[in-house]
Amino acid sequence: MVDIREVPEADIDRALELAYLVFHDRPEKEARERHHALLARCDRIGAYDGDALVGFMAAHDFRLSVPGADLPCPGLTFVCVAPTHRRRGVLTGLMTEMLRRATDTGRPIAALWASEAAIYGRFGYGGATTGTTIEIDSTRPLALRIDPDPRPLRLVDPDEAVDVIGPHHEAARAGRAGRPSRSPERWREEWLAEQDEEDEEFSPPRIIVLGEPGEPVAGYVLYRTKPESAGDTAGTAARTTGLVRVDELEAQTPAVAAALWECVAAVDLTGKVSAWGRPADDPLLHFAADRDQVRVTAQFPALWLRLVDVGAALTARSWAAPVEVVLEVHDARLPDNAGRFRLKAGPDGATYAHADGAADLALDVRELAACYLGGTRVTDLVAAGLVQEHTPGAAAALDDALRTPVLPHTGDEF
């Protein structure tokens, strides 16, 4: 019999060893210490078979930006089950306990990044944001259709970066749904760590900001570089064609973004810029003058969202247009979410209550989560056969109300 219970701090190293086993990882001492410190700050749930820890799940204490609001949101991480205990309900037990805790503490949503996308839909998670990888051929100057912001650029010491760019990041987070909050520890240990955990060949982080000295920054780019050499075998001197990896770029205006992209594309001794996890509506894809020079090389589901309390989540967010629909919601894990409910929402707020009569739309909580931030259209899910539209036009009306000025997005993998 597997027992689901709190993992004490004394068992964190055991939890890490289980995670390293499951994810085929063998990190160095510094990374292990960083992981230990991270889990010490997290909510921790374990599955114990006797004294053996056979399953584990941790949750960051995040807040997540949603349209018009900022909600408490556990961010699941280090989810793992021992190979000896797969298909025995261990993950279901861990997830059930996490959802119970979120319900009891009034956290209406939960989020995760899926290492295996096929797993989490059955627990009510839907892919709510899309990430895009963009590559720039920087062997020549970046061709632009707009003029870059002419204000000065300057490098910022990583030790000072949180104070300098942190307020700008927080303001940008409020303007785009799907972005988790960052503690000073996450800034230091993940975004500004001296050594990149995934690839030791990358440089320490470089931070460039745009704006007049003494004024709040208008934008910033955080990047790392990696040298690569190329040459023939006939004695020709090798030439360096290094890589610039953009980890984050935030800008108040398209002109600020243009200046920052132009800057990283001009870094000496490099020939390519790669930006993983950019928003699908990144303005660069429009103001780049040559789309052979600026290419989208990948697109993928990023943040997976779970509506723990559907009513609280729907009434907390803002709405772009009036809508009144009866939703028949299916939720196999949280029965309080299941049933028929009348959603009446608009720019002045929303109500959500049990309803009699026929439903306009029938959908699983997973699909509702995918649409919640405005990144997935209900009409697309109707076309895919995942949402049933009983009243013609209901899906389009709900899409109009859910719409946001920019697509939801996060580059915060956790």
Question: What this model shows, in words?
Answer:
The protein has 12 helices and 21 strands. The strands form 4 sheets. It has a 7-stranded mixed β-sheet, with helices on both faces. It has a 7-stranded mixed β-sheet with strand order 8-9-10-13-14-7-15, sandwiched between helices. The model has no long low-confidence stretch (mean pLDDT 95).
How would the blueprint of this fold be written?
Layout lengths: L1 E5 L5 H11 L6 H12 L2 E7 L2 E15 L2 E13 L8 H15 L4 E5 L3 H4 L5 E2 L2 E8 L15 E4 L1 H17 L9 H8 L14 E5 L8 E8 L2 E2 L8 E2 L1 E10 L2 H11 L5 E10 L4 H4 L6 E8 L1 E5 L2 H7 L6 E8 L8 E8 L2 E6 L6 E4 H8 L5 H6 L4 E2 L4 H9 L12
Parallel strand pairs: 4-5, 13-14, 17-20
Antiparallel strand pairs: 1-2, 2-3, 3-4, 5-16, 6-16, 7-14, 7-15, 8-9, 9-10, 10-13, 11-12, 17-18, 18-19, 20-21
Number of helices: 12
Write the CATH architecture name of the largest domain: 3-Layer(aba) Sandwich
Please state roughly what percent of the residues sit in beta strands, choosing from under 5%, 5-15%, 15-25%, 25-35%, 35-45% or over 45%.
25-35%
Number of strands: 21
Low-confidence stretches: none
Termini, distance in Å?
A: 31 Å
C-alpha geometry: globular
Label the structural class: alpha+beta
What about the largest sheet? Answer: 7 strands, mixed
Please compute the radius of gyration using only Cα atoms: 23 Å
**Helix fraction bin:** 25-40%
By CATH reckoning, the class of the largest domain would read: Alpha Beta
Q: Average pLDDT value?
A: 95
CATH fold label of the largest domain: Aminopeptidase
